[in-house]
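Deliverable D5.2: sample structural annotation.
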Amino acid sequence: MEKNQIRWQCRRGMLELDLLLLRYFENCFEGLTESNQQLFIEFLQESDQTLYQWLMGQSQPNEPKFLSLLQNIRDHIWKV
């Protein structure tokens, strides 16, 4: 998938998600391994409400594969 398409997928229906996901994408995506880039793309397929709850710590993914990515995103967005 092309970078512009991934950037577009980071744009969500919620401004908060737009800011968080775009910040992570712009600052971290290039440095991810190819498998983690694919995982991030898959992560973006979740609903806005689900992503918001995960990022705010209100719930956890049922898929264990998302846990380390989610922690990485949280660490980055709260550090900046």
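Annotation notes: DSSP finds five helices and no strands in the chain. Residues 7 and 78 are 20 Å apart (CA to CA).
The annotation will be released with the project's public dataset once the embargo ends.
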